Amino acid sequence: MSFRGKVAVVTGAAGGVGSVIVESLRAEGAVVLAADLIAPEGDQNHSLVVDVTQSASCESLIDTVMDRFGRLDILVNNAGVIHVGEAVDTSDTQWRHVLSVNLDGAFYMSRAAIPHLIETRGVIVNIGSDFSFVGGDSLVAYCASKGGMLQMTKAMALDHAAQGVRINIVCPTVIDTPMVDELARQLGNTPGDQRRIYDATVPDGRMISPDEVSDAVLYLAGDRARHVTGTSLVIDGGVTAR
Ligand SMILES: NC(=O)c1ccc[n+]([C@@H]2O[C@H](COP(=O)([O-])OP(=O)(O)OC[C@H]3O[C@@H](n4cnc5c(N)ncnc54)[C@H](O)[C@@H]3O)[C@@H](O)[C@H]2O)c1
User: Considering the chain, what is the average pLDDT of its residues?
Assistant: First the structure.
């Protein structure tokens, strides 16, 4: 699968999953602008600061892509945060933060990108979760954000199908990344115990690895998925089959 000549933007690109998506797209020939709260490592021309909770920051990122590279083919909305808490344990600020990064961020980035994606008949790939479909204990804000992202994906896909823009969502179960360490911290577990707990929740016996997520992103971003839009690709070792 070659992405030679394609220009991609990946948000949350310094993170466990984002960094692997960036490398995978580059390995297949794409020019990738890696964007995160702190500019990801790499040469300055291909890495940028973005705060996806701010629409002006998202618009400026897309403007920079157009200035530097002259086109946009692929947007991967991967930036995300998690908060452990039932409703009564979730403050206004915590609720807004999770919804702002996970849902507003993907909306602002997509809105800024779509006019340029129409020009290239490009694609958006959102990173959802198995919690786009099922509830999770003490994850009310996260589940709301990822469920919203699934519906946003479908609605946007319908709006832009006739313009040749494909919009899909990858929904992984728990992935072995720094987010697992953050969950361990919030739950008061050691990182090792947290990983054993998560491995045991997956029917095929282990968490997902970041490259399994990037494989799905590359499939949906590429020509082999040319008739695929408005759908979700669940990678969860069987979790949501229960
Ligand atoms: N790790 C998991 O178990 C898991 C499971 C399913 C889905 N996901 C999703 O995968 C995606 C990537 O998660 P990850 O595991 O790599 O987590 P991670 O914490 O390693 O990376 C997330 C990245 O998002 C960035 N980010 C946070 N707020 C931002 C903002 N306002 N603007 C720009 N960037 C911001 C962070 O700086 C970080 O680099 C997220 O959307 C997450 O919800 C993760």
Answer: 97
For residue 148, pLDDT over 80 is answered with yes
> Tell me, what DSSP letter sits at residue 88?
G
* Centroid of ligand 1 to alpha carbon of 158 (angstroms): 26
46-66, pLDDT tens digit by residue?
Answer: 999 999 999 999 999 999 999
Q: Give the integer Cα–Cα distance in Å for 192 and 174.
A: 14
Which residue, by CA, sits nearest to atom 17 of ligand 1?
179
Strand pairing report for 123-127 and 47-49: unpaired
Ramachandran region of residue 176, left (φ > 0), alpha (ψ -120 to 50) or beta? Answer: beta
Strand partners, 234: 171
Domains of the chain, first to last: 7-173+209-236 (3.40.50.720), 176-207 (no CATH)
pTM over 0.90: yes
Atom of ligand 1 at shortest range from CA of 51: 32
Distance CA 107, CA 149 (A): 9
